[in-house]
Amino acid sequence: MRRKITRKMTILVLLSFLVFSIFITKDFIYNSTSTIENAPYNGLSSAINGNIYDMDYISEEFIEKTKSQIDNIQFSEGNTMYDGLGTGIVAPTQNEIESLMGKKIIKNINTQFSTPQPGAIYDISSQMYFPIVSSQGSQGSCSAWATTYYAYGYLEAKDNNWDASSGNYNYLLNPGWTFNKVSATDYGSWQSSNAQILKDFGCATYNTMPYDHLDYYSWGNEAAWREAPLHKINNYYLLDFNEANPSLTINTLKTLIGSDTPVTFTFHADGYTPGFADGNYILSSSEYDSPDLNHAQCIVGFDDSVTDDGDVGAFKVVNSWGSFWGDNGFYWLTYDCLIEIGYALGDYALQLCVITDEIDYQPELVATWEFDVAPMRMDDIFTIGVGPHGSELTSYTPTYEYDDSYQLPNFMAFDISNYMSYYNANNDVLFFLDIGPSSISGIISSFLIERYESGALIETTAESINVPKETPGYVVNSFMTIDHEIWVEMNSPQYPQYSSSYLINATMQNLGLNAEADVELNIYINDVLVNQTLIPLLSIGNIVDCSYLWTPMEYGKYNITAESPLLMTDCIPSSNKIESIVWTYDVTNYTMIDDYFYSWKEASGGEELLLGDDDFHQTKLPFEFSYYDGTFLDVYVSSNGYLSFNDTSPYEWQNFNFPLDEPAYQYMIAPFWDDIYPQLGGNIYIRNFSDCWVAEWKDVKYSDADQNIFDTCSFQVVLYETGDIIFNYEYFNIPIQTFDYTTGLNLGKDPHYYTYIDTLDGSETEYSIFFPNQNPPEPFSLSSDAGSPDNDGNFTLSWGASNFAVSYSVYQFSSPITEINGSLTTLASGIPDLIFDIADYSDGSYYFVVEAQNVNGETLSNCLKVVISIPPSTFKLSSDADSPDEDGDFTLSWSASNFATNYSVYQFSGLITEINGSLTILATEITDLTFNISDYSDGSYYFIVVAKNMNGETLSNSIKIEVDIYSIPGYSTFFIILSMFGFIMIYSKKIKKKNDFL
Question: Domain 877-966 in CATH: superfamily?
Fold first, then answer.
């Protein structure tokens, strides 16, 4: 049931507070944390552009409150279009929220140490540093435009004394650089996500990466990546909307603007229509009425004299819809209107974002790497560190949006100047690049470290000793000469099973500059030597293997080690030994069958547990219950909707998604894990039946952190002596989409062994989920050989074999597939093969999934997205010109190019092999297949036609035409008559040729 607006507002208040704090990743330009007499907010203060602001920290409590309510904020679905122009605000993700723990937020200007900006007028956009007003086009990148193009673009132009108002591409920062890294689709992003990219990766200008509103997937070429570290922000912050005293927020905003600090904000673009209906470009509080969000913009000025509908004073705002929109791309938002937006969203409403610049920044250390084959853009796929891998001094994993449809760029660069202190302390220090797993195994072909002083390249390391290196894996480098180095690697099973056989294979390679004598490679299992290879002399570059066929015959923990005893002269001591800790479990996983036959077992006739908030109860089961690899008689019932066999005090109200490997969450059963508050009403019962035991949460209520009472729900878990488990849901009156629940089973020792469902939507009544203790097909991975994007519509799907699977079915749909239903297109059913060929697909985005099947159930692969963008096909250019042509009049004609939408015709004095600025353009974007040439004089002419569509361009063949017009000299009457006769003949020939052509 839809909540009332007032309920929405309350939820937004909590949500915004959390997100607000979340966006602060580091200290300000400088952080003068000090104790201020009678100062609020823990006495924290920091400076931004010469003014002191009060700060506060975000707490774990508010993180959790915000996470549980985040879905209640009213964001528009995707990229809402207005006259073909995009918007694109989306809510921050769970990961973004969690990353904000302990960050600071701006509360307000500290009047004790700073003077708030006085009234009157100030306009950042009047300065030459302010970027020329431009348009985001149809792309949903408003947050990137507000944050990257305008806010940071201005700060960076001012720092570098650029005339960004000129529109010079060298002086404009590309919003697509950040947007394409935070939005795997064209739906949108949030300001802080773009700001984090600016902090991690810097930004490229239009010169090295021009903006293209149709391109939301490119990450930039080598020139863009090399330029980006020069343009990095110092930090970014959210600014609190002070609901109790909004004038403080207005004064703080004016102070920021008055100190040349733009501020981004969000609102709903529907407000333009009523706001501008009165003929001015001023949006007042009486004209704006929306609690929703869909658009981000940048505040660039203020004027206390602007009035509209009784409101006095306004902020100047720049939009990203071009200079033809509004008042040359700008409009005014009254102070009262901004306050109304703040009230609608609530206190701490994730709306005001501030960026600070890294003044006169020059990188000192830059890491660069290249791929022969680039892996996909998986979550947290690359980490850059200093020190020995595995025991590093420090490391960093930058964030971006997960996207399994596109690969990483072939060249990347990353500023690691924050590691300079380690280099200064020891210039022999190691640096490493770790690339994680993806659906495509990559090959690292280069890894270098470059050192700069005042912008000048001083030195570059030699190439990494480890390249080429297949991913997942890591490579190292150092400024020292690595003259002695034995490098050990090992392949061992990750999840071995009892009584199964596995090949452990270890290698050692001499990566130094000298041959090494008397080296050995040993394999140990639980410190017992199981195999050894002895080498009297290991030449430079040589690789030696040592293998062992292992069959674990006991359940438990195993330490598998490959080691080459350390040489006295080894440059990288940490690389001579590899350990792998693995477990073997006597485990059979559970199948999950949702929407199972409903059979509620009423437990109210049993024992009532008088539990309070975050409480638990220990009880004995009527039988030994086998759960994964354990057998249990004692079970612990949590008031928060779960059972535990391992945690003796299961009171955790904060839920997490499975799998979880912490001991407190091992051997856990969660019919509905969340913050259940039995003191608000309802009952919790346990009851023994002849063949089962039941724990029931009857008419219990959910409470948020402020003890707001939500509607009720009834659910139960049934444990059978056979080991089977059933979750029964009598009814939900809780809109589950408004908070983050966990439902499923978790062993916690092996990621293979958990079962989890997250598709409950609050509409379930008399609904059951059955967990039989059987072996369904095991997880497996789907991939393809399609291009990224694919340019011919022909490719092959392939997948790894799923253990226990008997057959496979292949499905296709127009959006991500999370379940098999009647909406999908079935491409193949019940096949035994591990590949499936796709042919003749046209432009578009296609989603594929494979289902592995056996009698115990089905298992879905990952959902694979393939984007097809087919450029125009090849075609041929010809003409009707003679050889040579004697009148300079002829027609070019060409065959139709499949998929082409238009053609352009070019001319040059020599053979044409590429399109560049030297060519003469005869026609652009025509749809005809002919072009007439007339009155050309003697000479040699070369022509070419380019077929175009949104996916690319294709050149025709280049043809040469010689023009040699015949002329007769002399001035006698005879020759004049003869010339006239010749003219008539040529003209007749021309007419005939045209008629023949037509």
Answer: Immunoglobulins (2.60.40.10)
Domain span(s) for CATH 2.60.40.10 in the chain: 486-584, 782-868, 877-966
Report CA-CA distances (Å) from 141 to 181, 187, 190: 11, 8, 9
What are the beta bridge partners of residue 962? 940
Residue 95 tokens read as 């990961």
Which of the residue ranges 456-465, 749-758, 861-870 has the most confident prediction, judged by mean pLDDT?
A: 456-465
Whether the CB-CB separation of 675 and 702 falls below 8 Å is answered with yes
Residue that the structure tokens 């980490």 belong to = 383
Q: Tell me which CATH code domain 782-868 carries.
A: 2.60.40.10
Angle between helices 5-22 and 335-345 (to 10 degrees): 100
Start-end of CATH 3.90.70.10 domains in the chain: 5-357
pLDDT band at 982 (very low <50, low <70, confident <90, very high): low
Q: How many angstroms separate the Cα of 443 from the Cα of each of 369, 447, 547, 736?
A: 11, 11, 24, 44
Q: What is the pLDDT of residues 913-946, one digit of tens each?
A: 889 989 999 999 999 999 999 999 999 999 999 9
Helix/strand/coil for 885? strand
pLDDT per residue over 105-119, tens digit each?
Answer: 898 888 777 666 667
In this structure, which CATH number among 3.90.70.10, 3.40.50.2300, 3.40.50.850, 3.30.1340.30 belongs to the domain 5-357?
3.90.70.10
Strands (E), 131-248: 233-239
Range list of β-strands (E), 116-273: 121-123, 233-239, 263-267
Q: What tokens were used for 955?
A: 């050149």
In order, the DSSP letters of 9-66 are HHHHHHHHHHHHHHT--S--SB------TT-SGGG-EEEETTEEEEEEE--HHHHHHH
**What's the DSSP call for residue 145?**
I
Closest by CA position to 493, among listed 426, 621, 356, 585: 585
Please provide the distance, in angstroms rounded to a whole number, between the alpha carbons at the two ends of the chain. 69
- Which pLDDT score is estimated for 17? 33
How many CA atoms, within 13 angstroms, populate the side-chain half-sphere of residue 221? 6
For residue 226, give the nearest of 412, 393, 428, 489 by alpha carbon: 412
Classify burial at 600, counting beta carbons within 10 Å of its beta carbon; exposed 0-12, middle 13-18, buried 19 or more: middle
CA 333/CA 314 separation, integer angstroms: 5
Mean pLDDT of the chain: 85
Of the candidates 261, 293, 265, the one whose C-alpha atom is nearest the C-alpha of residue 129 is 261
Each residue's pLDDT tens digit, 183-204: 877 778 888 899 999 999 999 9
pLDDT per residue as tens digits for the range 445-459 = 999 999 999 999 999
Write the single-letter amino acid at 838. I
**Category of 950 on φ-ψ map: left (φ > 0), alpha (ψ -120 to 50) or beta:** alpha
- C-alpha 534/C-alpha 745 separation (Å) is 48
pLDDT at residue 4, rounded to an integer: 36
Under CATH, which number does the domain 486-584 receive?
Answer: 2.60.40.10
Spatial distance between the Cα atoms of 530 and 505, rounded to a whole number of angstroms? 12
The pLDDT value given to residue 776: 66
Whether the pLDDT of residue 425 is over 70: the answer is yes
Rounded-to-10 torsion of CA 840, 842, 843, 847:
-70
Q: Which residue has the tokens 């916690």?
A: 748
Residue by residue, DSSP assigns 542-589 as -EEEEEEEE---SSEEEEEEEE-PPPTT-S-GGGGEEEEEEEE----P
Q: What amino acid is encoded at 308 in this protein?
A: D
N residues, the chain: 998
For the beta sheet containing 516-525, the strands, ordered from the edge strand earlier in sequence to the opposite edge, are: 528-538, 516-525, 556-563, 577-584
- Percent of all residues in the chain with a pLDDT value above 70, rounded to a whole number: 85
Q: With 0-12 CB in 10 A as exposed, 13-18 as middle and 19+ as buried, what is 777?
A: buried
